[in-house]
Structures are given as C-alpha cells and as structure tokens.
Amino acid sequence: MKRKKGYFSISAVAKMFSVHQQTIRLYEKQGLISPKRSEGNTRLFAEEDVDRLEEVIYLTHQLGINLAGVEMILKLKKQISKMQNDMNKLFEQAQNQLEKDVQSSQETAKTAAYKLVRLKNAAPSALPADATLTSITSEGETQNNESIDNDPWYIEYDSEK
Predict the structure, then answer these.
(1) What pTM was computed for the model?
(2) Rounded distance, CA 58 to CA 70, Å?
(3) Nearest to residue 28, comparing CAs of 40, 79, 41?
(4) Helix H or strand E encompassing 160
C-alpha cells in the first residue's frame, strides 16, 4: 500500500519554523529551496522541502551564515554526497574484483595441487631413465643428487644461513 504524500502550504511551514512567509519566499528566490507549485501557482512544500528549509533556517538563524554562504554549503554538501556515492561504487567494484581474483587464485592452487598429487603418486619408474634429481641451494647453485633414494620430492636446504 503506497502512502500518499502530503504537502504543506507556505503559511503552515512559516508557523512550523516561526519565520515570516516573506523569508521563505526570499529563500526560494535565492534558489535555496524549490517547492512545487499547484495549478493555481500556490507553493506546495513536500517533506523534502521542509527538511531543506529547516537546514537553511538553521544555517542562517542559528549559525549566522549569510545566504551566499548557505548556498555554498549546500552545493558542497551535494558534491560530498556525490563523491561518497562514487567512492562507494569504486570500493564495491574493487571488492568484487578482489573476490574474483581470490577465487581464481584458489582454483589455480587447487589445479596445481591436483597435478602435484598426480605426479607424486606416479611410480618412480615413470621418470625417464636419464633423469637426474637436482636441488637448488639458497645461493642459486644447482647440485645433482642422484644418490638421494631417487625421491623426486627431496629438497636440499643450505644449512649455512
């Protein structure tokens, strides 16, 4: 069930905020608020218009900011809101890309692990007759290790470090 929007007249809004109707008209003339108009050209203030007017009145009456300052504050506030939305979209895109990258990395790791398990489970006789086992030291030197029980998974570490 959709709720019907209510509108306020300028006199009702003026009473709400204890300001003169002419003050509200001035704010409209300055472009700080923009209420809708009826067919008879009567100003109709929606809830959003009332909220905006409340903000303008707070800035002018409570904080003593002039109308040019209020206009600048409202424009900056709108820009900040747009920038926040843009940043949220960028963060969401980055998060989605990160999740895709993680998933891709996990799939790659699973595939590599599966291949390693298949190689490990392969019989040593599956290695070519002329194959030599080689280890790489931490200095990057290679050493032939044919005497290490023919274990293709043997890794020699340099113990000097």
Answers:
(1) 0.58
(2) 10
(3) 41
(4) none
